[in-house]
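Bug report (template v2)

What were you trying to do?
Predict the complex of my protein with oxalic acid.

What happened?
Run completed; filing so the output is reviewed.

Input:
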Amino acid sequence: MRILFHSPAHKAGPWLDGLQAALPEAEVAEWQPGVPPADYAVVWSPLQQLVDDQPRLKALFNMGAGVDALLKLRLPAHTQVVRLDDAGMSVQMAEFVCQAVVRHFRELDAYEADMRAGRWSFRRPRLRAEWPVGIMGLGVLGARVARALQGFEYTVHGWSRSPKAIDGVRCFAGREQLQDFLAASRILVCLLPLTPDTRDILNRDTLGRMMPGGYLVNVARGGHLVEPDLLELLDRGQLAGATLDVLREEPPPPEHPFWGHPRITLTPHTSARTLRDESIAQIAGKIRALERGEPVAGVVDREKGY
Ligand code: NDP
Ligand code: OXD
């Protein structure tokens, strides 16, 4: 069995060593144009050339949860696309979103500014019940985030494509319930996959339907947010601020208006990182299962796009 590795964003050496140690029966190599045909490839943002060069691949393992970059390629029908299924990401995402929500709700930025200015002053505590959190996407990550926020007794709503039942979470589903979901949310967390249905979903109209003075946390993909619309809503005071871990262009160009914006907290696509050991263990387990002819979790539905 031959396995290829390719990622412009990761150091190849440790991944190659780790995959080889986890699958000693396999021949593991870094992909180069023209290498012999392989059975599996472990990739992040691969080139079309890799797919075209490797027509016999049984599966492409994506080194992340979001497969939007991979699905832009022309892929043979017989090659399964398999996403990372948590692999240590959901706890990081829960931690990241909770800090963003808590930081805004508890006005920690304002306290920090006061302290820097030598001001020992208090603000009236906000009422938790007045800050319901809506989570767009109730999959592997969204469901874990919902659970974590419930631990701090926030009111949590969720929106997904198909109806869900999650203890203590008011669940909305489908476009027909999107407006009600937004109207019930004051903090909005985006954890949707980027698909033709969800591109630009955070825009003037949708964000404008949230409770007034709302707060946006986008930890999914930059393509979900219409960036000029966010600026307009911040200027109008319809939104109080945003935490953005993802942008349409990463990194953004120096002249991008989000750099240094007083009401936008930026992080460099780091809310839930791919953890090498967990990911290799998961991928190795799935390769062995596929070799035995067994189904594996995390196979992407190409029609749905996630
Ligand atoms: P999942 O595929 O497990 O869950 C996706 C959720 O979104 C599901 O609940 C799904 O609904 C819902 N959804 C999809 N399309 C629609 C739609 N058109 N309308 C309403 N709901 C929809 O994904 P994950 O939770 O694992 O990850 C979500 C995204 O987070 C990834 O695709 C990736 O883009 C991003 N991500 C970002 C990271 C970062 O570091 N910033 C790290 C990892 C992931 P249903 O349940 O009905 O199918
Ligand atoms: C992912 C990511 O999709 O890192 O896993 O964004």
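What did the reviewer find?
The domain at 2-87+274-291 is CATH 3.40.50.720 (Rossmann fold). The mean pLDDT is 97.
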